[in-house]
Each structure stands twice: as structure tokens, then as C-alpha cells.
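In response to a reviewer's request, we include the raw inputs and outputs for one of the modeled complexes. The two entities were modeled together in a single run.
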Amino acid sequence: MAGGGAAASALSSPWRALIQRALDANAHLRHSTYFQLATVGAGGRPANRTVVFRGFQEHCDKIQINTDARSNKIVEIRNCPSGEVCFTELAHLYQYSWEQFRISGSIDVIDSSSADPTKLQHRENAWFTSSVKSRLQYLGPQPGIPVLDDEHTKDVHLDPSAGPVDAFCLLVLDPEKVRHTFFSPSLCWCCLTAIRLLNFWSSAMFTVDYLNLKSNQRLIFTRSLNGEGSNDWMAKTVCP
Amino acid sequence: MAGGGAAASALSSPWRALIQRALDANAHLRHSTYFQLATVGAGGRPANRTVVFRGFQEHCDKIQINTDARSNKIVEIRNCPSGEVCFTELAHLYQYSWEQFRISGSIDVIDSSSADPTKLQHRENAWFTSSVKSRLQYLGPQPGIPVLDDEHTKDVHLDPSAGPVDAFCLLVLDPEKVRHTFFSPSLCWCCLTAIRLLNFWSSAMFTVDYLNLKSNQRLIFTRSLNGEGSNDWMAKTVCP
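The model returned the following C-alpha cells for the whole complex.
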């Protein structure tokens, strides 16, 4: 679900296949779908927390995150609707190597008060895609308030066919800038040749030299802001 | 080095032993010392990136990060000297469980222009504690500028006994608020008893109930701001 592997082939964003490959390679690791979401919090100070990647929205590159509508981050995001997520994935093929994806963009908060039927449908889809166990957390007390007794350990029941509860909120980050960094130690020529062959088979769509593993590499993808839903991405290789 | 295990026993901050235990448990994983640093970037927008935890500063709980003085984050931090780091550590004893530490505070930028001899000494210590390979990256071109040719792959030489180069910068985050969240699925009573015994032996210093693993748990530690170098921390258990 989170990786959205099947949908990846139909994508046009040049960075999407890079992240898809990293996610697929780490699919056996539960934490591969965790990433960190930075927002601007109270007093203009940065806030950062780990969230779960809930996949890309259908037919686009928007990133979905489920959260509690009562959490602090909702107030923060309504006040400053920008975010940057940071994926850090191990590059298993290459020992001691890892990839980082920094994706910044605007964040849309979709809760039960949304007036847009399409957005409400996305929220409902996200609810039903979650496990029943995940849904149960939205029936607990408000996040961040002091625990006065054992009320948060009380058993709660949820009808699996019931729609999203009020506390369930879908965050949708619309990427505007994607920064990809590949950190790798120097590799021997045997490894380099093997990796080149592998990449040649799998990523003909990239014009950038993704194979320069003798040093670290960093790519910046920026979306042209020439219209709603624009998907024109410009890639630039920069010093790491 | 990064874990600072030996020093941990002399600490008074109640959160420090929690993070130390998580780091020690994950010491065999190279990425256990990676964490994400959020700052406020250009236009007041959040910025987020993975950095390497370089340990706590001697005799205190300040968190050290090495970085390139020419990177964007230096400008950002000078403009808004606040940051929040997010450690995410797997809780290996408990399957599918993980711990999150969110540590926010002010950030001090220590580069070659610092007028404080003590800070310059900390910077020099950080330089020599890094591997020679790590130091080499500060001899490369400015991070983030376009790669025009293969100049960034050129071989560079560094005298291992030479002090820090101008591009080497030490960031020091002084924690003001620490939020700890332990995410765990429901455990059977056998596991719970084993964990309770283990925790009883290892963490008598905590007054909080760290053992309530039947649900997720979240702690907030806040430092009293009643003086320079204050180390009075207040712990509060809140709903996750």
C-alpha cells in the first residue's frame, strides 16, 4: 500500500521512481515507511516528528499522512501550511550507503469539516485503507493532554464498517521541491560495474548520472509553478 | 563515541538515560546515530534533513552535529537559531515497537570565526574525533552548487594532524524540551513481566511509569528556564 509500487510505472515525475525503488528495496523493513515531517510550530520555531507514509494519492505525486485532528501539528499547519518530509532509506545493495529524499511542499489538512466531496472521499479511502488497529487510536483521548488515570488503556470497540471518526485527519503534501542525496563510500570497480548494469536496466528514464558512486551525489528536482497540478520537473545535479 | 555510553551514568537529565538505552540497543545499526534536524528555512518555511549524531558535549546534554559552514542550514540557523531533532530508534526487545525522541532547543553555530576559545576547542575536538574520511568532505566544493564537471570527484589529500578547515562547522543544540514516545503493540503478560523486571533493574531513577506497554506512551520533559545551564527537568506523562 504505502509503496504504491504498481502505480509507479505510470508516473512522470522523475524523482518518483527513485523513491519508489528505495521503498521497494526496503519493503521488508517495517520502518522503511516512516519519515520525518517538519513544520513550523508555535512562536515560529521548527517542529519535527516521525509519521507513517500512507502512499501517494491516486494519479498524482501527493504524499498522504494520517494523523489525529486534535494533535498540535494541525494547529501548526493551519497557521503555516508548509512542510518538508525527510525519507532516509538504506541502500541495501551498497554496504554502508543510504539515500535521503527531502520533499517540501504545501500541506492540505482534510478533516471532517472539509467542504470538498473529493477530499472527503480521499479521507474516507485513507480511513478504510488503515488497519482497524490503527483506526482505534483515534478513539482515544486527545494527544498531548496529561494522563490522569488509566483511561487511555481502556478497551474500545470499533465497527470495522463504520466511516472515519471526527478525530481522523488526512494530511496531503503537494511536492514542490525534491532533493535526493545518495551517500556512498567509494566502491571497487567490480561493484561499480554491477551497479551500472543494474541501473541501466531499471532507470533509462533519467538523464542525470545516478551512477557516480565514487563520491556522494545530490540531485534537486524543482516543479515549475506554471499552473495547478503542473508536473513539469526540472532536475539539477549539485555538490553534496 | 556517538552514544557516549560511559558518560551516561553521570547524568542528571531524566530523558538522557532513555535515549542512551535506545542508542546502545541499536549500536550495531549504523543508521541508529542518524537523526533528522528541522530548522526554519527561507521564507519562514520548514526545512528538514538527516544528520549524524556526534554525541553529547562533555559534562552536559548538548547535542553535537558536524556540518559544512557553506551549507544552507547555516544561514537558516543564524536567522532562526532554533531546531528540533527527531531520533527514531527501533525497540529491539519488543517486536514492531519503536521509540521516538523529539528534542527541541536553541542551536549554536561554531565556525572558525568564533571568538570564544572554549567553543573553538569544542570545534577542534569534534574535528579530530571525526574520521579522516569524514573530514575530507569539507575540502570539496560548496554544497548545493551545480556540478559543472567532475571536479567533485577529484582526489584530495588531508594531513591527519592538521586542525579544522574553514568549512568545518560544529552545531550545538541545547535541549529545552524533550518528548519521548514509545510505540508498542499490546504485549502478552509474559513479555510484560520480563520487561518490567528488566526496567526495574536498569532505571530506578525514573518516577514515571515507563512500563505501561499495553498502549502507546508519551512523556514530555521540559527544562526550567531559571538560569544559564539549568538542568531542572520536569517530566509529564501525556496521551500519545
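As requested, we also summarize the result in words. The two ends of chain B are 32 Å apart (CA to CA). The mean pLDDT of chain B is 78.
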